[in-house]
User: Which sequence fits this backbone?
């Protein structure tokens, strides 16, 4: 088996595991930084390896439009193209088609849309998403799905039906998980019965992993956590469970507690480009005048290059002077912060102390909120 | 002596040397990348060390306005602030005051100007430039000078007179070269007699190094080379000679041939931000469609991280997708290209083969021009 999920230890609903892939092992729970256009913004891949990143996500929608998946395939696939040695996950393109592009037409067959780059007309179908993702060659690929507003029941019902039909077509187009593992995506908004129906149907298709889609897209945090309370356990426990698009430190903790294994989010790099950094006491904007003369590192006990090397005063200067280096240095720290958070949670699961870790972490992280 | 210039070998007018400084030795001829605002744009200092950079220039005008030299001094000086372990050179602020700011008044005492950032009113004098540069704490600091249009004789004459008077005031304000070496700046435009007068007067002040100012600011390349033919040899041969603001690969070769030891320029990083790279066959824009499927590195025999790791096709993609990583990766290569060029010229001087190297280099580099 090219792919297999090894459950190492449970602690309540939380799990420590290893997802074995052709490009190496992914210890779970894991956070994947996002490399939208075949690059994690402002971070060279060797620095990403140093940060301990074992999985990177890249976006099918973006790469399909530019430079095109055929080109990436000709250049040896995404690993070779972006020189990333570890596992890669690509999304299906669905989320960006629905959130970023201008939709021209959506029907049961697929979606016609206009590129956000140049307005050119394109059409995505489940089959095309599979073909594009096969060209890209990521280790984990995703079914083409429809992600609705999570609290509009009629919309969610329709999206669940359509996502299900599309999942079957993706499974047929990509029946062999030897080179690439195809994950199914559960939808259902905040509605437990719809999540259950979606999961049941997906399980019939026997995917090597399952994602939870349609969360962190407009509902409140309590609503997301409440939905996770039930919807994670609806998924098979011998397969990895992936919560798409979630990366806030408190959300990661809440979702790991509830049994999620894999996460991705643009948050650490996007915040960095706005001068914001994760700290144990919460998120802070380093451009604040409080840091003008602060000679301390961002975080005393962080082992990233930024914290090992630079003062807050210098980082503040870079942010205020709009220097490119700020993006790189703050991204390094934010990514490392999340990876260390995941590493600590994995250790706590192995030590049976996860609840204590999460409680201490959240008490401190949310104190200012 | 904290500073001393050791002449290792001459080859025609060209020289291989070592400039000893409190932050380490600078083998000459040397090219210094520019870190305008206490950062070489998009390049972390550890990467700059890896590229073999032995000297970095930073701009007094910019740092005076933001974050302020007092702050930098409080943070331990520029080396500590930007975490750059090797020697630093600061310019005097004069060039930016005259080129970037809005001049309100210029008189023999100094210059009143408005900040290009927020329009706030400031005044630079030779004494203030010295105080600011002492706060910054670079190893090599520069006299406050006036850089005129090089071909307006009346303007150049006035600028030479004023620069001379200001040099004497800088020398008086900074008499002790123990911690920081103050370099004088020769002016004179393209006029040999004015260059000679400027040099003679400067030599009376006995500086530990001398710069050639007022070139590469509008005159043609042949005019610059012709001026260098005479003006370099007007400077003492037992002190380092620094040609300010020059960094095009062909200009570096022509100036080293004529006996210049130190250079700085924003060119490698500025070009990188526009997608342009130095190649042995000349400067190329990597965004060109010719590179869409080019799996080769930028330069086969280059040892920089970019060339060791990425294909032209990937770099082109980053440029076209306007990704931040392009700035970093192309800057790494362009800086390394110039440093390797300087290293090769130094070896050629030691081997007595400089003329051959320069001829071969220029033949190839300028072939497309």
Assistant:
């Amino acid at each position: 088996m090219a792919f297999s999920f090894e459950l190492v230890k449970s602690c309540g609903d939380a799990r420590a595991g290893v997802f074995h892939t052709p490009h190496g092992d992914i210890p779970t729970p894991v956070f994947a930084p996002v490399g939208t256009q075949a690059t994690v913004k402002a971070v060279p891949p060797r620095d990403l390896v140093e940060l301990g990143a074992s999985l990177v996500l890249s976006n099918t929608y973006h790469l399909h439009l530019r430079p095109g998946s055929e080109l990436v395939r000709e250049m040896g696939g995404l690993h070779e193209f972006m020189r990333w040695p570890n596992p890669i996950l690509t999304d299906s393109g669905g989320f960006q088609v629905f959130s970023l592009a201008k939709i021209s037409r959506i029907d049961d067959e697929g979606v016609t849309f206009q590129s956000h780059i140049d307005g050119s007309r394109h059409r995505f179908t489940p089959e095309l998403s599979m073909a594009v993702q096969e060209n890209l060659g990521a280790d984990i690929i995703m079914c083409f799905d429809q992600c609705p507003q999570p609290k509009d029941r009629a919309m969610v019902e329709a999206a669940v039906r359509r996502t299900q039909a599309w999942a079957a077509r993706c499974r047929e187009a990509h029946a062999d998980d030897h080179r690439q593992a195809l994950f199914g995506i559960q939808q259902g908004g905040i509605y437990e019965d719809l999540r259950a129906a979606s999961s049941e149907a997906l399980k019939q298709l026997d995917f090597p992993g399952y994602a939870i889609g349609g969360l962190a897209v407009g509902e409140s945090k309590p609503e997301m956590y409440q939905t996770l309370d039930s919807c994670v356990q609806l998924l098979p426990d011998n397969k990895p469970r992936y919560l798409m698009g979630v990366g806030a430190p408190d959300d990661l903790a809440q979702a790991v507690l509830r049994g999620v294994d894999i996460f991705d989010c643009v948050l650490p790099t996007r915040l960095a480009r706005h001068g914001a950094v994760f700290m144990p006491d919460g998120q802070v904007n380093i451009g604040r005048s409080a840091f003008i003369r602060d000679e301390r590192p961002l975080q005393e006990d962080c082992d990233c290059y930024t914290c090992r090397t630079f003062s807050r005063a210098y980082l503040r200067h870079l942010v205020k002077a709009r220097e490119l280096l700020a993006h790189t240095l703050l991204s390094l720290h934010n990514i490392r912060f999340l990876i260390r958070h995941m590493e600590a949670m994995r250790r706590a699961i192995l030590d049976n102390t996860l609840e204590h870790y999460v409680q201490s972490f959240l008490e401190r992280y949310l104190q200012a909120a």
Summary: The radius of gyration of chain A is 20 Å. Chain A has 15 helices and 16 strands.
